[in-house]
Write the structure tokens for this entry.
Amino acid sequence: MEFSYWERASFLGNTKYCVLGAGIVGLSTAFHLAKKLPGKDILVVEKSPFSGGGSTKNAGFACFGSPTEVLSDLELMGEAACSELIQLRYKGLHLLRETLGDENIEYSACGGLELFSQVDKIKSKRNYETVLEALPKLNNFMLNALDEHHIYEALDDPAGVYGLKSIEGGINNRLEGSINTGKMMRSLIKKVEDAGVRIVRGMELLSFEDKSEGVHLHFDFGKLNCDKLFICTNSMSRSILPDADIMPGRNMVMVTSPISELKLKGTFHMSEGYLYFRNIGDRLLIGGGRHWAGEEENTLEHGSNPNIKKNLIELLEKQLLVDIPFQIEHEWSGFLGLGKSKMPILKKVSKNTYCGIRMGGMGVAIGSEIGKQLSALFLKE
Ligand SMILES: Cc1cc2nc3c(=O)[nH]c(=O)nc-3n(C[C@H](O)[C@H](O)[C@H](O)COP(=O)(O)OP(=O)(O)OC[C@H]3O[C@@H](n4cnc5c(N)ncnc54)[C@H](O)[C@@H]3O)c2cc1C
């Protein structure tokens, strides 16, 4: 199929800069390019009606690290890299809030409470006691990384406060919060369009050739040329960047029916961030559980793993909403971009092509900063 004269003239334009992927990273990249290059032709191309990966499917945690996740990252990455990653997330969250405005994204500074379960199926090697012991050291690490004092604090009797069972303790991160994911993405799209960027949906890039004169793009609907290409396709990048260290990690989310007198208000994590739940008004959203599965979750197929779903429902029934009637009214899946390292890949791929991918589990936090840095990487040339 070929594009019509009208489609080329009015929708695709004389594309100078093409951003692939209309998630947080792609839209942020386009926004920062447009800010520095007003009047230039910038086109965002997206294959899905909303976001095919994570940006309209996530849980809306404005988070940068629960205690067990940071302890695990410290062990895995070492202090310097872990500090750099946390700074990126923290900066990204501030940039997102500053760019879109707290009201427009329904930001709530509710904090983020990590709960320690006595019965998690794959028990984390870090239990409440060992994390409590490590807390002064952890707070000191965060002080050095973010210049913020006493970020983590133990909460007295979380089981009593929230009506939970088999929970041995809770540690709060006072600087975390929540957003309304749908409103955040709508505001971001508006911001980008107001800056003069065009967004075309329903076209998938199949391949590209980076030539000295520019980039030839082969879409399922036709061909297009651009001067510069910015690849922001996160979990789905392997098909166009086959050598990139990136793979998908499927994540499922469920939302309950409204629950009168819901006590669980705020954002909550368990088991090194693998489990998460929060309220949306008087409903409870719950998701994650990848630690209960194997490589079968490294897939780009939507759906849910029956074992993960069963365990999440058991967690609701036996620990979080004990004796409280509820139904699951919404259920969906999305994809994380994962790799050997938790650091995003931000680089020039070839002469006219750049990429910002591998956002891990905290792309809400990191995404806007990576978009800004990706545009800066090109602009500084
Ligand atoms: C269930 C779930 C819950 C999450 N919860 C949180 C959370 O609470 N807090 C948090 O910080 N992070 C969370 N995340 C992670 C976060 O949502 C992602 O890291 C973030 O959205 C990544 O943004 P992105 O722009 O890099 O990628 P995406 O949002 O995945 O955008 C990439 C886009 O590229 C498009 N695309 C891919 N290939 C092509 C192609 N060939 N042609 C055209 N278009 C293409 C895709 O359709 C997609 O829309 C969650 C993720 C999931 C899946």
